[in-house]
Design brief:
The protein is mostly beta strands and 142 residues long. The chain contains 1 helix and 7 strands.
Length: 142
């Protein structure tokens, strides 16, 4: 079984009791599900470099508006009916930019998602809808 290495970013804002998580859906493809920014670590790429690259590619947010809070979890995800596994490395960032409730961002990358538009919004963590493919597995660690 082959294993792919992944990074995911829980980007939050607000005080602990009212904390919100930045989530997105693919424009025109809500069936893909609600997700958090993340993606594959390329061969010979450092984990931290992959994290910042994926956050920038998927959100368009510059480093200046997200404060790194730390790594919160690492686990292996085994998707049903597939002969592969994913090493998931989940990190936490605090959003410090201007208040914005929702925004769109078009991905610019060399990957298969190049040109796709993502629809971002903030969701309260205490009432968080289920995220796609267990991406919410470590929410309780925030």
């Amino acid at each position: 079984m082959r294993t792919k290495r992944k990074v995911f970013a829980y980007i939050t804002r607000g005080e602990k009791e009212n904390r919100e998580l930045l989530v997105f859906e693919y424009k025109g493809e809500p069936e893909v599900g609600l997700q958090v920014p993340g993606g594959t670590i390329e061969d010979d790429e450092l984990l931290i470099d992959a994290l910042y690259r994926e956050v920038k590619e998927e959100t368009g947010l510059p480093r200046e508006v997200i404060d790194f809070a730390g790594k919160i979890h690492k686990y292996t995800y085994y998707p049903e009916h597939q002969d592969k596994a994913y090493e998931r490395n989940i990190f936490h960032f605090e959003y410090t930019g201007e208040p914005v409730e929702q925004f769109e961002h078009m991905i610019k990358s060399y990957g298969r998602d190049n040109g796709m538009t993502l629809l971002f919004r903030w969701e309260p963590i205490k009432n968080l809808p289920q995220l796609a493919e267990e991406q919410d597995k470590a929410i309780e660690l925030l």
